[in-house]
Amino acid sequence: MKTRIKKIIKARLPSIAKKFEKQRVLNVDLVCAQNERIIMSGWLVDKQFQITASSLKVKGSDADIHTFERPDVSGAMGLESSQNCFGFIIVIDGNSSDLSNVQFESDSFTFPLSKQRYDLAKNVSDILAHVPNDRDQAFSFFQRLGFDVDEHAVVAPSVARKLDKDVLKIKRILDSINVHDGDFFDVAKSHLLPEIQRIWKSRIAKFRTSEVQVLGKIIDNPTVSIIIPLYGRYDFIQHQISQFSKDSGFSNVEIIYVVDDPEISRIVNITAFGVYQIFGYPFKVVYSDFNRGFSGANNLGVSHARGEKLLLLNSDILPSRSGWLQELAAQHESLDDCGILGATLMYEDDTIQHAGMEFRADSHYPGILMNHHPFKGAPVGLLSLEPVFSVPITTGACMYMNRTLYEEIGGFDPLYVLGDFEDSDLCLKVLDKGLKIYCSSTVRLYHLERLSQNLVDQGDWKFKLTLINGVYQMDKWSSLLEEVV
């Protein structure tokens, strides 16, 4: 397979052929600016030679560096030795305005931070939570530098994993692609998208079985079926069920968790049983035979649903109050032309993560309309909108709709590989039927955004795959997008 990929690249993409076998790769996962210091975490790989911490520096800065093993990276990249890779936490003096000037040096290699695709961490505890092994040593490193670290905030389960062979094939195709090349859109549409979808279609054809675990007595005729995919972070079950079980609005609701991660099936089975014993609230768990991605997991869950209404919900969504589901259902019922109703999602500090989305062009990635959150970061108290308002599109983290409509339009398109853009695609399917998308400003939920996704793999290939999904959406819906935007 690797030889075939090389041939494709050399024949079709000569501009990146020389980059395909980059010897040394640095990736930044998280960045945090705190107390006049910049904290960065990530990993460094050399595909040919063993490397040590002394080979990594920050140009022009006295850096404090802590290193640790990254078996997940070594496994995903197929390295011959764990000594060819290490994870790092680096602390330098500076603030957020200095980020554009940060440049890593490793022997003769340079890696500007400005060319990295990283997430922003709120504090050092968030960074510590993503250290897979020897977390106590990283904790001591932060304490030694005078940081206030909440050791209880970093107990989230960590799943070290190797990428399965289909995902690894896709990763290898994307690893050396430069998304900033002027011809990226055309190359992605003509060559990358067909090859990646060929791999994924072959994978979809292998989907066969799913097992169902039933906890408690499930009601015969639920009004709503809530579908919640799980990947990596299985502890969210306890947090959600503890809230749902106290809400009288959940008395006629069917909860279906979909484990889209065979590696955690056994521990989820044990955890689910314990959660039911504690709270006594019935729910079902569907175990997938493959990692199907967000689309496939939701479609699998809906195939087991019996409610007339569906609520597609992320596992990291938590209620802010009781009665919210009843209110969302009443709002949906009051709208004759509603295809999908979303909710206002908030960060823990009560700022907005989502209150509807829109398509927006991004000069960094010409040709692709990105899914933009216009209210993101604003304090929810400043939100001045109608209780229910029309939006162009809404997030798949919380979607309320009729099950018959979901089935009629074919659910989520599974060719949006792993995730991203499948929610806007579902909205476009609804708009194409002449229905509308709405968002509730009064139903407000907390969203711990992307906590489970960040456990999968931290390489920039995942962002590149997001852009490939964006190319697919543009190709699939070009005519309708011209009307919507």
Report on the architecture of this protein:
By secondary structure, this protein is α+β, with helices and mostly antiparallel strands. The chain folds into 2 domains: 24-154, no CATH class; 210-484, Spore Coat Polysaccharide Biosynthesis Protein SpsA, Chain A (Alpha-Beta Complex). The chain has 15 helices and 21 strands. The protein has a 6-stranded mixed beta sheet with strand order 9-12-11-10-13-20, sandwiched between helices. The protein has a 5-stranded mixed beta sheet with strand order 4-5-2-1-8. Strands 14, 15, 16, 19 and 21 form a 5-stranded mixed beta sheet that branches. Helix 7 crosses helix 14 and helix 8 (236-244) runs parallel beside helix 9 (265-279). It is globular and about 65 Å long. The model is unreliable at 5-21, 153-160 and 452-458 (pLDDT under 50).
CATH superfamily of the largest domain: Spore Coat Polysaccharide Biosynthesis Protein SpsA, Chain A
Assign the CATH architecture of the largest domain: Alpha-Beta Complex
* Strand fraction: 25-35%
Radius of gyration computed on alpha carbons: 23 Å
CATH C-level class of the largest domain? Alpha Beta
Count of strand segments: 21
How far the N terminus sits from the C terminus, by CA atoms, comes to: 40 Å
Widest beta sheet: strand line-up: 9-12-11-10-13-20
Estimate nothing, just give the exact number of structural domains: 2
